[in-house]
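Priority: low. Protein: peptidylprolyl isomerase. Input follows.
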Amino acid sequence: MILELCFLSAFLFCVNGAKLPEPEVKIEVLYKPFLCHRKSKYGDILLVHYDGFLESNGTLFHSSRHHGDKNPVWFTLGIREVIKGWDKGLQNMCAGEKRKLTIPPALAYGKEGKGKIPPESTLIFDIEVMEIRNGPRSHESFQEMDLNDDWKLSKAEVKEYLRKEFERHGYPANDTHHEAMVEDIFKKEDEDEDGFISAREFTYKHDEL
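Result:
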């Protein structure tokens, strides 16, 4: 999976007290299904296949279809799990849609580069969205976790949700691990320390997101 490595562009500076506009991602729609039940938005979890090329010479530097385990990859859109060019270029997509993204260095790996990607490289990605799911902070996810419909999440409800998610992805249940995760979640999310995570606390977009 292409994880984001954040670097400020060497060319970001101020003119007349304002920053220069951020470079844009060039988007070319290669295929769009006739039926589109929902479009991707920040906070959604996307399953994608992709091929990544260097614009300079056309070299394929990574492909989810041909490298590694050859499986598509999951990531959450808009929370910096991936390069900024993906977060910008994969909004408002349908499941089954294919796009070609041309991403400037400032929205990719910048002046440092990464692995097979040289510094200051413009990247080209052919990306197909296989599936779109509600993200962990959507209202739909909150309602799924809120088993007794009281608009707040108890530790037992969060633990049960984690157990189901682990099982759904083929991982064995681990009560000790789940309890540790729940304690960590409540330490970060239970702002008023009342022992529950309210709908506001759950859906509020924290700085780290």
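The mean pLDDT is 83. The CA atoms of residues 65 and 170 lie 22 Å apart.
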